[in-house]
Amino acid sequence: METPLTRNIAPGKPPTDMGAYEQNGGYQGLRRAMAELSPGDCLQLVQDSNLRGRGGAGFPTGMKWSFVPMEKATPGHKYLICNADEMEPGTFKDRLLMERDPHQLIEGMILAAYTIQADIAYVFIRAEYHTAAARLRQAIADCYAKGYLGENILGSGYRLDMLVHSSAGRYICGEETALISALEGKRANPRAKPPFPQVSGLWGRPTIVNNVETLCNITHIIERGADWFKSLGVGEDAGTKLFGVSGRVKNPGCWELPMGTPIRDIIEGCAGGMEDGYQLRGFLPGGGSTDFLVAQHLDLAMDYNVIGKAGSRMGTGTMIILDDRTCPVGMVKNLMDFFARESCGFCTPCRDGLPWTSQILDDIENGRGCSEDLASLENNIGFIGAMGNTHCALAPGAMEPLQSALKYFREDFERHLSADRCPYGEAN
Amino acid sequence: MVIINIDGQDYQAREGQNILQACLSLGLNLPYFCWHPAMGSIGACRQCAVVQFQNAEDERGRIVMACMTPVTDGARFSLGGDKASTFRRNIVESLMLNHPHDCPVCAEGGECHLQDMTVMVGHRDRRYRGRKNTHRNQYLGPLIHHEMNRCITCYRCTRYYRDYAGGHDLAAMAAHDHIYFGRHTDGVLENEFAGNLVEVCPTGVFTDKTLVQHYTRKWDLQSAPSVCVGCAVGCNTMPGERYGKLKRIHNRFNAEVNGYFLCDRGRFGAGFVNSPQRLDYAAARNADGSYDAIQPDAALKLAAELLQPDNKLAGIGSPRASLESNFLLQQLVGAGNCSPGFSALDHALIPYTLQLLQQSPARIASLQDIESADAVLVLGEDVTNTAPRIALALRQAVRSRAFELAAELKLEPWQDAAVRNLAQNQRSPLDSYLSAESKLDDIARHCIRCNPEQIADHANAIVSALNGGTADSDSASDIARSLLAARRPLIVSGSGAQSAAVLEAAAAIVNALHRVNPATMISLSVPECNSLGAALLSSDVSPSIAALAERAVKGDIDTLVILENDLTRRCSPQTLALLYDNISNIIALDALDTATVSEAALVLPCATFADSEGTLVSSEGRAQRYFPVISTTLDRQPGWYWLLQLGRAARRDDFAELLHFDAVSAACAAHYGQLAAISAAAPLHDFVSHGLKVPRQPHRYSGRTAMRANVSVQEPRQTQDGESPLAYSMEGLNRDQGGLLPFVWSPGWNSNQAVHKFQSEAGGPLRGGSAGVRLLDETTDSSGSPAAKPGLPETGQWLLVPRYRIFGSDELSVRSEVIAELAGEPLLELNAADAASLGLGQDDALCIEGAAAIAVRINDSLPGGCIGFSAGYEATRSLVAGSRVAVSKAVDWASSRSQIISSDGGSRHV
């Protein structure tokens, strides 16, 4: 089983520097592209590879790039932005990639920027990731010294500058248009689409925003081709993916596995199954803003469409486990508090609807709920949870754990209401 | 036009609109908050949700925001269905989670858009049981009250203040449901257009502090269509009255003029109407020099003596009095004896400005035209302080580039956030030549600082570049290039620099440009609300005030009638002494007590714009009528009325036929070809709509029978208004009369948002037409050179340049308490090098020609050799713009100031 993304990463192994990266075949894809491939060739490769965005939405990367205007007649900057604002609850995969192998990301970014002919690239990184930011800055400096960045990269005539920007720290900065607003020094409010960033993004110029893991894949696709990449997946989707598990499992962590790996293999195999004395009640398959799945879904493949059909989303591929001794209402309330606090405050359903929902959950959890509350929650799911009702996807995402908890764990809500207290006890 | 289907019915809609505009234009009630017709859509509040169906088969549809969805042919929507209605009700319920239930004590109550929308969506019972968020309010200055708890976070305030008006000190802060709209710290809002927040805010966060101090609900306000007298722009206003007091000024929509917005001088500068210094009764000077109040009959009897046929009469009119008043004065004393009442410099400059406008082949720009300009050159006029609303329009003009870029991406202009994000700081060129910094510098490309003489030189360089020659400076050729490249170039100048050379140069640029591009536009500012009207009434035979003084010395004047003019603002004490010492019979008409009034033998108390009617000519050449909102009280009468009475008292035959205001207006129109259209500026007094006059009172006006119950329980007859098409009544129809709009109200729409119910389409011109008639559209070839330039003193090396202030330079507004509070002290400004050469620091003062010391402010934006003086202040009245003077550092300034401060402080403790 090939693990291209983590080939330079192993427990206990020091972070990969320029020397180690190059020694292990690094920057060969870049050299190949600069010597042999036109931007159009690179785009074709990425389109052929069926790579889908690893940030959560799973949008085909090649298609996203194809919307960038390539006419020579439009002068001015174009931008590539790496979305390294990894703040999805339960998610820690990008951190691993950046801290342990920063050059893999940088090479992928240079190739992506070359493909869309961007001249400036930013890594927009979560403020708390200062170790990753420091390693990226060092790696970027090494790249300038080697001629992988700056003017006339490897004699190709292509110029690219790369900068690391540490976020001021809001979850919403992970939304690509909010990220762009933040990078411009404005409030991190998402923007209405259209126009899409590919046409009018950072400073009104064509811009591509991609997740860290997505860009890391580019390095290998350019180096080894689309067919090789497609062959990595064991299900519908191409490539490998970093999957993670957190919660009461024996071995929480993050592993690179083929796309389409069955969920059971991840939870029971890599993560070692539940801790002794705990049973699996459900799990959020792709971070805090995805719908719960339950034991009956364990044999599903981790592919975008398979998980979608089951009523959830692949998201970031990092699962959060709900065990049988943790209150689902408390867990949902905890997530709802987070999303309510992280609302940018721009649109009404999110800004005021999430705290409202949070308050209902707080009442239920603390034994102050009343019989109308479940109807209110369902009203709010319809009100806030549909895409298009809100300005961006934050609030619909926030409602996903709630709506699926009401589906799978409704009796828990009802027990809270009938007992006027949390049946799981004070600890929850 | 395309067809859209709403709830099963086909409607015609205009392409390019969004669905919200289309619905409102069709008369459908669709609630909204964040959308504003002048500011476009951002999709924040989610209130205007409708359901859009994908095709004819789709029965579910999906929620879309009407304000963000363009009209497309065949599109199918549901506005009234359950899905859309429930969603909109949920939105209001969410907005009400934290909104206090303080409507009874809220200044917005009764004209609150949030109240209207809450009723419209049918929200009643709240389900939320949590605590409400609360905020600390800020002191935002004497004009605007802040009550953050009422905020529904629609973002209109910051979008207006920052994006539209260019302010910096109001922002959205914090996040999630703790968003706070305010300043970084307490303090006076810095933007000159901050007052519009009162009307932009859909609830009671920003309210009019001057109204709150003597509060009346909108439904109890009597209103009338009026015109602002704060400057010459002629913004349309709706003053509101209760108990004989002027309560507030609201914007009156005029698509061609002020649109939805006023400046703060206009909105808050009308307090002089309620001033204790208003003249209440006619008065005659008695033997010991003091005044006795006398009955109007006695006053007219006295006037008859002063105006007897063998007396030699003279008059001084006023650029702040109506055409009708000025006209009657001229008729009374004879054109050759009637001064238009300008200062010595303006006596040459204002008629010259008029002449340039008359001769200009280019269109005189309305504010709407200004907003559409795509290249602007400002020459010598600090419009933010002399004609403020023009500055706000210029801020929109520089966005022309943004709309061009948006059109390339097929973005509609109303997609506000998208257009701004796309264009970022790309602007259409605005270049300015000014004698110092201006509030438009942040949007200007070239800001060139030079004195007025140099401005004219630079302008001539631009003319030669426009004519194909080479300019001697890069900026001049750059400016010429962008003017030539523009589709709708605009030249902005005016009399503010007090320089005929600047005006002449501006006209030369316009002429050169117009030869290449017939869409070229010109805007020339003049100082007062009827400066241009006074100039239109004057001619070569009209004497200046100084000329009258010379005649007075020769004994050629027995009786002088001074109409609404404080001469101390117009000429030197020496000139005034000649007038006052040599004329024993002075009749002064004015609304406020002034130094000039104190010189008169007979004083007649005048009405203001708020209690009289009249016609004013704006700097656009637009004649507009204002109507009384307060019926005259005490012995106050409109200036034209007193003058009619004076004519009768003098037994003048030509006054016998003039019985009504309309007759005066018609006589004035008949007398002056250029004014022929003024009678059409507004409907005449006999106008009726559906058999009734237009009501000044909304139909919920309360207390009509109780208001004077302490005097008599019998209801008095309503005050009759025989002079205007308006009635002091609730009866009648306020509908579709365009310029005759006393207030906006429509069922379900109690707030000012109701204005769309009076528009031809949402955001479009009023049904019934925009107010006023443009007088100067036809180019005349009246002969042409500036009137003789008065000799300017050259006693020293320092060139005096005027520095205007929105609060402080204007005569009437500064007599309103809040404006006086903001006016600050007069200053002399000069750059650091010049200050150093005079040994001046920031806390020093200067004496000019040995006069009283004035505080110095070091302002490095002034060119060397110039001293800027605060124009319009009492302390600077003796200073003549354009003169060169000798100066000396004031001795002991700092210590004398500290003594004053300590003695003030001391007296407070005594």
Descriptive labels:
heterodimer, A: 428 residues, alpha/beta, Rossmann fold, Ubiquitin-like (UB roll), de novo design (two linked rop proteins), 3 domains, four-stranded parallel β-sheet, 17 helices, 8 strands, 11% strand, B: 910 residues, Dimethylsulfoxide Reductase, domain 2, seven-stranded mixed β-sheet, 26 helices, 27% helix, globular, disordered C terminus
Kindly summarize this structure in a few lines.
The complex is a heterodimer of chains A (428) and B (910). Chain A is an alpha/beta fold and 428 residues long. Chain A has helices at 18-23, 28-36, 39-49, 61-66, 93-100, 102-116, 130-146, 176-183, 212-224, 226-232, 263-270, 304-309, 328-342, 348-365, 373-384, 394-408, 410-419, and strands at residues 79-84, 120-125, 161-166, 207-211, 240-246, 253-258, 280-284, 318-323.
SSE layout and pairing:
The complex is a heterodimer of chains A (428) and B (910).
Chain A: H1 18-23, H2 28-36, H3 39-49, H4 61-66, E1 79-84, H5 93-100, H6 102-116, E2 120-125, H7 130-146, E3 161-166, H8 176-183, E4 207-211, H9 212-224, H10 226-232, E5 240-246, E6 253-258, H11 263-270, E7 280-284, H12 304-309, E8 318-323, H13 328-342, H14 348-365, H15 373-384, H16 394-408, H17 410-419
Helix pairs in contact in A: 2-9, 3-6, 3-10, 5-6, 5-7, 6-9, 9-10, 13-14, 13-16, 14-15, 15-16
Chain B: E1 2-6, E2 9-13, H1 19-25, E3 49-53, E4 62-65, E5 76-78, H2 82-95, H3 113-121, E6 144-146, H4 156-164, E7 171-173, E8 180-182, H5 197-200, E9 206-208, H6 209-212, E10 222-223, E11 226-227, E12 236-242, E13 245-251, H7 264-268, E14 282-285, E15 291-294, H8 296-306, E16 313-316, H9 323-333, E17 338-339, H10 344-359, E18 363-364, H11 367-372, E19 375-379, H12 383-386, H13 388-397, H14 400-408, H15 416-423, E20 430-434, E21 447-449, H16 452-466, H17 474-485, E22 489-494, H18 500-516, E23 521-525, H19 531-537, H20 545-553, E24 559-563, H21 573-582, E25 585-590, E26 602-605, E27 614-617, E28 622-626, H22 639-649, H23 661-671, E29 694-695, E30 726-727, E31 773-774, E32 798-803, H24 817-823, E33 828-830, H25 832-837, E34 845-848, E35 854-858, E36 866-870, E37 884-885, E38 887-889, H26 893-909
Parallel strand pairs in B: 1-5, 16-17, 16-24, 18-23, 19-20, 19-22, 20-21, 22-23, 24-25, 25-26, 29-30, 32-36, 33-35
Antiparallel strand pairs in B: 1-2, 3-4, 3-5, 6-9, 7-8, 10-12, 11-12, 12-13, 14-15, 14-26, 27-28, 28-31, 32-37, 33-36, 34-35, 34-38
Helix pairs in contact in B: 2-3, 9-22, 9-23, 10-18, 10-19, 14-15, 16-17, 16-18, 20-21
